[in-house]
């Protein structure tokens, strides 16, 4: 976190909400995690080192971005 100076904000459901309510921008994160399941090595926790998992996530996102360019 200190390296990139990112600010993460947790979106919580309000206590007065009844039933289903769309939370802002949550679908973007859930959609991205869903895309990771298309990559075999990310569909299960095969990796031993966290650095290897991080590298596989970066490769998966590069693949997704390249596909959007074409």
Which structural traits does this protein have?
extended; mainly alpha
Structural class: mainly alpha
Number of helices: 3
- Sheet-strand content, in percent, reads under 5%
Report the count of strand segments: 0
Fraction of helical residues: 40-55%
Q: What is the terminal separation in angstroms?
A: 32 Å
The biggest sheet amounts to: none
Describe the secondary-structure layout.
Layout: H1 26-36, H2 40-43, H3 50-69
Structure description:
- The protein is mostly helical and 70 residues long.
- It has a domain at 26-69.
- Helices cover 50% and strands 0% of the residues.
- The chain has 3 helices and no strands.
- The chain has helices spanning 26-36, 40-43, 50-69.
- The longest helix has 20 residues, at 50-69.
- The chain is extended and about 40 Å long.
- The mean pLDDT is 80.
Write a concise synopsis of the structure shown.
This protein is mainly alpha-helical. Helix content is 50%, strand content 0%. The chain has helices at residues 26-36, 40-43, 50-69.
